[in-house]
Task: structure prediction
Amino acid sequence: MSDRPQRTNTYTADPVSDRYRECLFEWLAAHAPLWNQITYRRRQQYFAEDGDIWDVEYTDLYAQYAPVLGKATCQQLARKNSEAWRSHFELLSQYHDELYPSVTEKPSPPGYWGSRDDGYELYGLVRNDLYTFDWDDHRSTLEFGVGSVLEDRYGFEHNERITLEVRGKPHWRGDDSRLELIYDEHADQLRVQHPVRIQSDDLREQRQAAFTHTLDSENTTQSAAIDVGANNTLAVVTEDGDTAVYHARPEFERFQTQSTRIATLQSQLPEGQWTSTRIKRIYADRSRKRDHSRDAAVKHAAEWLLDRNVETVYVGDLTDVLATHWSADVNEKTHAFWSHGELTNRITLTLGDVGITVTEVDEYDTSSQCPACASETVTRDGDSFWCNDCGLEAHSDIVGAWNILQSEVGPMARPAALSAERDRDAPTDGAYWQWNDHDWIPADFGEQSRSLDQPSVSKPASSQPG
Result:
């Protein structure tokens, strides 16, 4: 069972009555104190000499919390706590292992979910056999039970359960796993994470069903390359010269705004305190919005590649490139906002879901050489690239993808719409894409991969090496 692939459906939901809403929030609020008490006991043992966290006893806590949460939920919370500790030990092992150079900071043990002073995170768990979805074209619902104390307090009838109205439809079908409910106070929204385990022989069919296009084995397949970056999430070039750029500057500006807000709030904390409930919520909102736009870009790119019957994709490996970055702005983009490793993992997973083979290749210096004449006498400025020998003007990330692809498949057609700054090179049919908080749409004509307030860059008057 544990070896079966798992995918997660995500919905939003609302209680169907005020009575259920009050009961739900009281039920959610009881999770964090139980988590914190289990965590406290295990942290005490963790920091004790020769302590073993797996020897910690916590089932006595169930007598206090089961009347509110239900005993099954107490067990699920303890199981999730154990999963967090196992993940910590695995990451700690990687930190001490030279085979994992990407793990550069010593991981901290699992922490607490809020406090009495700052408030508790509203987060809940429901065992896989204790909830029920009722799907309907007009009104879908989710039902699950609570502890006996809450049933009495809110006047539940026999077998009555909390009922939520669900927005969204299941994308993946399979055997239910543990349900997770997360209340986002910043957005005043309840999110439902619904994992399912899928039979391996059924997974491919479901993966294909999520996309409009599929690979056509009867027609010629081709290869493509992806240059991943911080200014532009993805820059894609195919062997036929088709291009797509997903620009990320507006999202990074929003990320920076929230980062500034976090820094301001941290500066106002009492001495010795590092975080607060408000800071954690902004962190969560910042990460959620970043991940949403990035994951949607990868799915959109997968659809775009399938439409062109691309079977093989080469992705730039930036291990050496990241080591050379030194500026604070670049470091924030590459490590906090952008997260190269997570992005490439998402590319590998999503493209692999639809049968596209992904291979990582060295990207070092791919944007410092002209793909048309191989000259290294080039000038780069933001998105702009000029070859001072042959006169090529191009989008710098398209140049990177072009060089990656030529290094793998040999000389190829000159990509279309190379320049990100000239109207004549800015087609309106979607070579450049921008995020509107929900979807990736064709970029505004003449703007492409630039944010609205970014200044224009002039072509150098004379040829000078970059």
Summary: The longest helix spans residues 277-307. The chain has a mean pLDDT of 83. The chain has two domains: 6-203, 211-442. The CA atoms of residues 226 and 236 lie 5 Å apart.
